[in-house]
Amino acid sequence: MATRARRSPGGSPRRILVILLLLVIALFAGIAGTTAWASPKGKWTPLLGLDLEGGRQITLQPIVGKDQQVNKGQVNQAVDIIRNRVNGNGVSEAQVSTLGSNLIVVSLPGNPSEETLNSLAQSSQLAFRAVITSEPVQQPAPAPSPSGSATPSGSATPSGSATPSGSATRSGSQSAAPSGSASSGANDVLPQAFKAETNSPSPSATPSGSASAKPSASPSGSATPTPPVQRQLPGAGQQPTSASDTAWASKTVDDVWVTNNLVPSGTTYQQLYEKFPCTAAAAKGGPSLEQWREVAARAPLDQPDVMCSQDGAQKYLMGPSEVSGRELTNATYGQTTNQQGQQTGQVAVNLSFNDKGKSTFADVTKRLMTFQQNTPQNTFAITVDGQVISSPSVNSPITDGNAQITGSFTNATAKTLANQLKFGALPFSFKELTSSQVSPEVGSDQLQKALIAGLIGLALVVVYSLLQYRALGFVTVLSLIVAGVLSYGLVTLLGTTSGFRLTMAGVTGLIVSIGITADSFIVYFERVRDEVRSGRPLRAAVETGWNRARRTIIISDAVNFLASAVLYVLSEDNVKAFAFTLGLSTIVDLVVVMMFTHPVLTLLARTTFFGGGHKWSGFDPDRLGARGVTYAGRGRVTIADRKAAAGTAAAQGGNA
């Protein structure tokens, strides 16, 4: 009585092959999606690294104050931070090294974005500072247009009455930006804890839609706006009791402002606040606007500071920092959600603080709650790189240690800021000393030779498989093709989604993986052939051999993957790329063996050619030295076994 072969515990082989086909389709559909909708656009070919494509080389020089020096430890720390920043999206193969005692050379593959270039030199020290005072910045009035000057805003024309704000609102908004926009324009607030600053009324604005015949602006009203009157803040001569105390305004500024020749010795923070420029026009004739920002970014955290909003529309005098980037444990980015859990489409940077930051942040927000009727002292300025990126006011204490920065972020800018904050602040800022294009070190000629070497190795594996396994060798060929398609798709997709770039070291890892993949096939095929040698039918031999070979393949690939992971973590630059591709290929090998090689061999075992043991199938029992078809079911002794046992007994009897 014939015994049916046991079914594969992994399911129907045809179903598994269909699932694999769907995975391949999904992979290349993802690549197609990146070419259509990703920013920047994806490609159908892998991104190449610095040695294959070339890129840009930038030399950075630290910006230090007078009588300040940079030590080797600070330079090495900066190298690590910059390397983490540029590689924050994955294995982008940036090379960061030192030049001389204090210069840093950064080599970036391809054409790096402006955000990436700008993120290299910024210190990115996050600080939360209580606002002592704030005011909108006076912007130069725009030149009146012919139509605006020809028709008085108080005219009784239909257009004038329909839009009474006319040029008056325009000049008013230029001369006195509301504090809500000053907190960075579209910058919103920390949800459920901070409320947005209220807009300061413009002195020359009238309600939109008003039908009043009263002129909304006189000719002189659209001229140069009157500068704000600077008032001496209360508390002069007193010792500040908190970071929000106005007594800080009368304190002498830190030496960093004096040594950089921005203000004379003895200047108070009130005077610095009055002198600090927020626009290039205001800085004209003296130190540049960038110099003021750089010094503001390097000012001590335990001292007050003066900064402007990102759009230059608001100026802030702030107390010492009470929570800084040192207390950050993580920084991520993503879309905000409303109370119903639906995404709003607005991008935010999410911050998590450690226990110290959580406790301090809760105390500060509780204190700011006491200034509810005293704006702007109930606001908190969030500063990065010498600029205020948001200035929300406190609505309720934040006690869970989580904060959120929202504003006019795109996914790219939010990602850059999150990476800068997550990977730490540079010990100082840098300026770009040189920037030049770098030609490929290896080039297309060397890449072509490497690919030829890989093809030769692949051809040798194919020839060996056909000679050793005959028709079964074609299963090896097809499996290698599937593995190649998956590897190519993954490398291409990761180039757009994770910044992975293929270097010569990465190509080497892919070539080495050919041998690893072929080794898995050999282990499986030899296990099956051993079962055939023992007398099992091919269908039963495939399942039994797979159950035994599967453990060996998984253990072997696990060891390879572990070695790749350790090498990736402990290595740098090109060696990391080799480890990455080797580990990726190991995963692909497992997928191909389990979802392609085994199902295909299971289906082939059901055919007459392979299942019948054709001499060119690779499973010919005579060629393999099988003892005959001896397996007939559980607990049954076959005729072949009886004959073998009888022959053995006869031989023993004759010898006796």
UniProtKB/TrEMBL annotation:
It is found in: Cell membrane. The chain crosses the membrane at residues 450-467, 474-496, 502-525, 577-596. Gene3D superfamilies: 3.30.1360.200, 3.30.70.3220, Multidrug efflux transporter AcrB transmembrane domain. Pfam families: SecD_1st, SecD_SecF_C, SecDF_P1_head. It is a multi-pass membrane protein. SUPFAM superfamilies: Multidrug efflux transporter AcrB transmembrane domain. PROSITE patterns: SSD (PS50156). GO terms for cellular component: plasma membrane. Its main location: membrane. PANTHER family: PROTEIN TRANSLOCASE SUBUNIT SECD, PROTEIN-EXPORT MEMBRANE PROTEIN SEC. Belongs to the SecD/SecF family. SecD subfamily. This is Protein translocase subunit SecD.
